């Protein structure tokens, strides 16, 4: 008999594959808010520039630049996308781009985005896990009942111009990104092309006091071993151990759209006229 996979079977298989990959230190995990009301609660470990990182002790600095969407094909023949930093450099003095970029040569559009490492404590969802064998804990946030998905791991947070405005406000106010926790929340139903995200912060708490519950090690110490953001952004590294380039397209070749695998990306959100 042919095996017919239902939506929840697929979701479970996807999740298992994702977990297995992560345990083996495989592909780079991205913060991914899929449904309306989804929230990610995290501590940023990449400060806004090198000077700030030196001062705060942050393990890395965020990467900001123009990203191309590189298309790949899964083993099942589906299209998958990956964001890769444009190879051109902006020459301030002469006000021209220098260098070479294959994607620019191929006229692949690019968008301004940032990328940083964050330590995700938990995701919060409006609805219970569809995998009933692994229910999430119901909790209250501001009197709203939500379900807590424990993560306790590093993920790459990538977002566009609109969110950058919020991040810039925090930098202006606090002069560092690593001195408090943040919550990103999605507004917009699944697969909607009208999605916005908000960013709220908690009271300051030294990053040196944040320990990974499993190992008891400060997250800042663990963050020192993370792959370079620049290498990830430029497409040099696609896995946590940094050795294999490309296996992502085979490892996660399930029937899920690229948005849910490589971090949420909604067409049009960066086209807002401000
Ligand atoms: Zn380019």
Itemize the secondary structure elements and their pairings.
Layout lengths: L6 H17 L15 E6 L1 E2 L2 H7 L3 E2 L1 E11 L5 E7 L3 E3 L4 E3 L3 H4 L4 E16 L11 E5 L2 E17 H14 L5 E8 L8 E9 L14 H5 L5 H5 L14 H4 L6 H4 L13
Parallel strand pairs: 2-3
Antiparallel strand pairs: 1-8, 1-11, 4-5, 4-8, 6-7, 8-10, 9-10, 11-12
The site of zinc ion (ZN) has 8 residues, from α3.
The class by helix and strand makeup works out as: alpha+beta
Instruction: Give the low-confidence spans.
Output: 21-25, 243-274
Total discrete domains:
1
Largest sheet: 8 strands, antiparallel
Number of strands: 12
Overall average pLDDT: 82
Helix proportion: 10-25%
Oligomer: single chain
How much is the radius of gyration in Å? 19 Å
Which ligands accompany this protein? Answer: zinc ion
Looking at the structure, what is the overall shape? Answer: globular
The fraction of residues assigned to DSSP E strands is 25-35%
| Topology as a string of helices (H) and strands (E) | HEEHEEEEEHEEEHEEHHHH
Number of helices: 8
Could you tell me how far the N terminus lies from the C terminus, measured between alpha carbons in angstroms? 55 Å
